[in-house]
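Table 4 source record.
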Amino acid sequence: ELLSPLLPEEGAVLVAGLGNAAMTPDALGPRTLDHLLVTRHLMEVLPGMRSVAGRGAGGLGTTGLEVAEWVRGAAEHVRPAAVVVVDALAARGLDRLCNTIQISDTGLVPGSGVGNHRMALNRETLGVPVISVGVPTVVDAETIARDLLGEAGAVPKALNGRGRRFFVTPESIDQKIRDLSKVLGYGINLALQESLALEDLEALLA
């Protein structure tokens, strides 16, 4: 319901799963693609379905490519009407950690939540609308300290950025990534393939 109004009514869509699949808190994007119904190669036998392509890859440190470079390369080949990017985020509040799904129609700057700003993914860099979908899976120590001190009625005056480069993730992150990636994958599928019901996806993706 939230994604559908942001997507063009027709045309192919490229879904890009960002993140390092070998690092669990950062694996949300690649794992979401495990639950994506890709149809671009089946359009001749699936009339009435929307053309969907999916691509996942790590960032600069694992591929030697800027995220924007490989997404743009895939987009130039697929020529989608829109790109949906899925990524793990950094929380700015303990209550948001693995509890919120954030959606934006203005794109995404990979790595910005952990102070590692990379080339932006947006309409200006890709030439088509970019919808970003993400879940906060890590939180920095400064935010934890500020939230806990605030709950105790203390005023955190002396943090001054200390702990901002130290990130924490829940102990149950493995299960949370499994659950959240399925929620995101199925949500994207239902937004793109409006003729399908949840039961259809369960049968097709089992």
